[in-house]
């Protein structure tokens, strides 16, 4: 990965509003993302933090009632300005997506092979036979056993792990440049999770894919990501290279996430540390820092305004006003 | 697939047997003696006993059933007490007429029902959805004999476009496919289609709404499918259930249209049942109910096989 390469995905000030009976709800409020070819970014956060919503905004996969703001550029194109026709030519060809539950992401009444061939024929002028041949190659590539027979399977005839492999095959069918992964290992058994992660890493190198990987599992993020962005209440609260964020977490929320995991054996009477409280109601967010009410080191200043990004070290930034105070009292620190 | 169909066919046999018992017994549960209706009032007890013996009503029920079933299996449903004509041919003609009417009504209902259902399902919460909901609720809840009368008043009496009753010119009961006959079927078929239309519209609306909310629809869009290909997937997913509902509706209409057939004097099974009940014509009643019940069983079989051939998730074991 070269450091000078132009970003292939660049979102600036991304916002997503959903209509509700009580007025619009801002699920994503000002997210900046930048991703170079071949790079993997993990969006880490609890459910409701806006990570999946941000991901879907990259291919405008929301219902039309949702309003997307800011700018999204992928492979040099303005995604938010695309017409319906341009959008459908872009989806699956430049950017494709794998879903959380592969059991639900395939049409249950079509054969898997046909569903892959359908995508190939959509984007390339090839015959049905050629598209089927491509599907077979992909099945071999993702190491599905007896691929020829499996192409004729219906989704319910495959195991969860195999379906996710098939989903990956489908996502890669038209050689996309960017892969969006929405918790692709969450619905799988632990052993299958690792196989799928390893497969994704391997395919990423081979295809030079940029991957945005949404997960709530810190372990999975560490396993796959070059960079991690931690989301809370619709904002990125901390982002940076994987190792920096994990070893030197600056935001209290990130630290809370990290300490709420078990490391090896947990004593019988030891309790797993959890972050107190629950995520804020997005329809009525708290004033100032959204994490404030749950923060161990909450101070009066936290409730006054949403903190800006503070540079922790070169490309490691966090949104915490206490960091800014610390930095200004230790100039050059 | 063929094996599955054969298997289902075998399962049908005990059902058909049960149906025959119920048909036979149901009629015997009804109070009143069918023969008193046709016997002269001053008939002697001896004459009555003679008549009873002639129709086999003097034997114990299981024996009567055995004899009846034996004849039924040979296609002999007995003779009508009122008219003396063989029941099989009466029922055959009536079933033919009802089948034409019910099929046309189901087709009309299915066409409009799926249309309204898809529109409502695709545009949930919009004025179009509410309009479609109103139409489908009206279809189910308006009394169809009343609807039939209104249709007759408007289209026959006031406008004079279509004939009001009967199945053909000059009171003919034989069906032919020409305009002379076709104009007679329009009003009863449209009236009869109101119920399946409402039911199918509501079913399809719920189906479409459910399918559109499923992950795979989003996954289809994510791989670049436009609205038209997505629509085809939705149709393909909705088809098994929609067709099953349509098949069952056809079954209900086939036998359950007594009121409409009476309003329009359509010489079908409903009309025949009505006559048979009021004349206490036991053999005719038995025969008609049996044939209708067997039609329903057969329709269920067809629906089952069709559904499993359209939906791979249904086990074909």
Please give a structural write-up.
The complex is a heterodimer of chains A (333) and B (317). With 333 residues, chain A is of the alpha/beta class. Chain A has helices spanning 51-57, 84-90, 102-105, 112-123, 128-141, 147-150, 160-171, 190-207, 218-224, 242-247, 252-259, 321-329, and strands spanning 9-18, 25-35, 40-44, 67-74, 77-78, 95-98, 178-182, 210-215, 227-232, 235-241, 310-313, 316-318. Helices cover 75% and strands 0% of the residues of chain B. Chain B is an all-alpha fold. Chain B has a domain at 88-268 and 289-310: MetI-like fold. The chains are: A alpha/beta (333), B mainly alpha (317). At the A-B interface, helix 2 and helix 4 of A face helix 9 and helix 10 of B.
| Main sheet record of chain B | none
So what's the CATH class of the largest domain in chain A?
Alpha Beta
List the uncertain runs of chain A: none
The helix/strand order of chain B is HHHHHHHHHHHHH
Q: Residue ranges of chain B: pLDDT <50 for 5 or more in a row?
A: none
Mean pLDDT of chain B: 82
Annotated CATH architecture of the domain at 88-268 and 289-310 in chain B: Orthogonal Bundle
Distance, first to last CA of chain B:
9 Å
Q: Kindly provide the name of the CATH class of the domain at 88-268 and 289-310 in chain B.
A: Mainly Alpha
Helix vs. strand class of chain A: alpha/beta
Strand content of chain A: 15-25%
Q: What's the β-strand tally of chain A?
A: 12
CATH topology of the domain at 88-268 and 289-310 in chain B: MetI-like fold
Oligomer: heterodimer
Largest interface in this structure: A-B, 32 and 21 residues
